[in-house]
C-alpha cells in the first residue's frame, strides 16, 4: 500500500488498475487468506479497477508462471508499459518479475526497493494507514498476535529475526483504511485458525525432502 501511495503521490505515473491472484476454489488471496469480496471492497474504496487472476488449487508453479505471463502479455497489448511492485529486498523475486516483464518488453517499478523496513513501516503508520494481521507463521508468532491491527505496540512484540514488514513472508496483513481510501473497508474479525502445509524442498545434492509449515489465519469477513 505504501508503494501505491508513493506512486499516486508522484506526477510520473498513471495507475491503470490493481491486480491480485485469487485461489479459484477458496475465493481467497493465497497465503493471506483474505476473502475475494474484501479485496473487491478494498479496490472500490481506493477508487481503482481490480483485475483478478484465478489460480486453481492443484496448479503447479509452471502453471502459475503461465498465468502471470498471459496477464503481462495482455497488459502490453492494452498499452500498459509498467507494473508496480512493493518488494523491498528479495533479489530472487525481483529477478523473476523483471525476467517476465522483459519478455513482453515491459518494466517493473519498485518504489520501496532497498529502503529500511523499519523506516517503511514507520512511514506507513505515520501516514495514517491501518492494517490488520491476517496470517502469521507459527514459528514466530502466537495466535493472540493474529487479527490485531499493526501498531507500534504490536511491532515491539515482533521477534528480532522477523522483518517488520513481513518481507520474507513471516506475516501478511490486510490494509483497510488510510489516506488513499474514500472510506474504511468495513469488515468483521472471526476466529483465528491454524493450518499446516506440506511442501517439498530440493536439497543441494539433488534430493527432495518434505517439510511442513504452520500458519495462523484470522477469519475476516
TrEMBL record:
UniProtKB keywords: ATP-binding, Nucleotide-binding
Diphthamide synthase domain location: 11-184
Keyword Cell division in record: no
Keyword presence, DNA damage: no
Pfam families with a match to the protein in the record: Diphthami_syn_2
InterPro entries per record: Diphthami_syn_dom, Rossmann-like_a/b/a_fold
Annotated signal sequence range: none
GO molecular function: ATP binding
Protein name: ATP-binding protein
Organism: Fulvivirga sediminis
Lineage: Bacteria, Pseudomonadati, Bacteroidota, Cytophagia, Cytophagales
